């Protein structure tokens, strides 16, 4: 078993920046994809950004050019640097990781979620 623990988030004015972090711990052989999803009130959860173990990234069109996802493989940590924030970025941001657990199977894990609120 593994766990994901998120940090960051909070309240920020439109145009501001925030940085989210998510650290994996526990029984980990390796980590495949890591990413961030968000869910706004009354809406479905959507992919924000994803990064592979090789560093290939994928972003939602709505955040391209404003958000940057990165990871530190040695620390089992993924980051989301969010800039030029807009009120529509408000939501609960959840970390995701596809982790290879002993003895050698892959499993999807989710963080507990962190609230990001952007005021206009």
Set down the secondary structure blueprint:
Elements: E1 2-7, E2 10-13, E3 18-26, E4 30-39, E5 46-51, E6 57-59, E7 67-72, E8 77-82, E9 91-101, E10 105-110, E11 114-119
Parallel strand pairs: 2-11
Antiparallel strand pairs: 1-3, 3-8, 4-5, 4-9, 5-6, 7-8, 9-10, 9-11
Number of strands: 11
Q: C-alpha Rg, in Å?
A: 14 Å
Q: Determine the mean pLDDT.
A: 96
Q: Tally the helices: what do you get?
A: 0
Distance between the termini: 41 Å
Helix-strand category: mainly beta
Indicate the percent of residues in helices. under 10%
The rough form would be described as: elongated
Name the poorly predicted regions: none
- Provide the succession of SSEs: EEEEEEEEEEE
Report the β-strand fraction as a percent range: over 45%
- Biggest β-sheet: count, sense, barrel? 7 strands, mixed
What attributes characterize this protein structure?
0% helix; seven-stranded mixed beta sheet; single chain; mainly beta; 120 residues; four-stranded antiparallel beta sheet
Structure report:
This protein is mostly beta strands and 120 residues long. Helices cover 0% and strands 61% of the residues. The protein is built from no helices and eleven strands. The chain starts with a strand and ends with a strand.
